[in-house]
Phosphotransferase (Paenibacillus aestuarii), 333 residues
Amino acid sequence: MTNSYTKTRIRKITRHFGLIPLSSKSIASFYRKNAIIQIQTESGTYAIKPFFRNLFLRSSTIHQIKTTANYIQLLMESDFSYMPKWLTSNTGKLWTLNQGRPFYITTWIKGRNLENQTDFEELGRALATLHTTSSRFIYTKGPFTTKQIRIWKIQDRLFRRRMAKAIQSNKQNKKWYKKHEKHCKIISDRAWADLRNPEIVDLLEKELDRPALIHNDITSPNVIISDDNKLFIIDWDHIKVGSIYVDIAKALMNTTQFNPDFIQSFLKGYEEIYPLEKTERKLISSLYRLPREAWQATRFPSSPRSREMLDIMEQTWLLRLKAIDLLEEWINQ
């Protein structure tokens, strides 16, 4: 949606949740101009969030919002405290439909981003609490981590095939890929070799009977420390039954900035709730090592977004390698 939401439309949406907006403004995200609408009401400040269908799933938008709402309801009933409160509409649902688009409303969390080791310890606890709380109620079975590994292997193969085109796209890309292409392949090959370890293969088979909900999009912008110093995870659109190991690896990559103190704090907090066995640590370390940003950058090598990914990888390359070594040490601690 490129245009701002009209006041009339916002009133129609909020009316279904028993709210009357006094003022409103659109908040942009990295990907969308109007990602969230912040509304002021007599009872407080709230966030209206349009729900967008995951294009990688074959199910409809309505089916996806119903599934998401069911998972959120489960967490609310389990007193999971690390997400904003979702409001119930006048139909009893956690969402409403307007002009064919589902919308939901949560309390607005005012605060700051992750800043220190204490914050990252709490983020680790939050993610472990999500994984352990939901595992008591979810019965869906499936090859969660194995399925994601298959997808990433395909992306790695495409990365190697697209390399020539990526190098030809511009001089900057050529310089980056000539410098790092070999190393990307080496760290990927090592990860694939580790994932073939019989102990990890056995762990992945046991995972079939240990389903859990994962947030699936833990990034720095999606974690807020409120003014009263409580941690909240926002943007639950991608919640699903999936791999806790993938969730941990992605959260480490997308929040800690390769800072060893932040990485150790996150893992310390997580293991206070859910102690990890050596094989589980090795699995997480292997998944963390994969250079997923480089794979994504070769999909559209001439785009500004791809160039930005490569610039970030260039700036953080040595830190990334040190973080990989840190996780290797963590396996045997």
Notes: The chain has a mean pLDDT of 93.
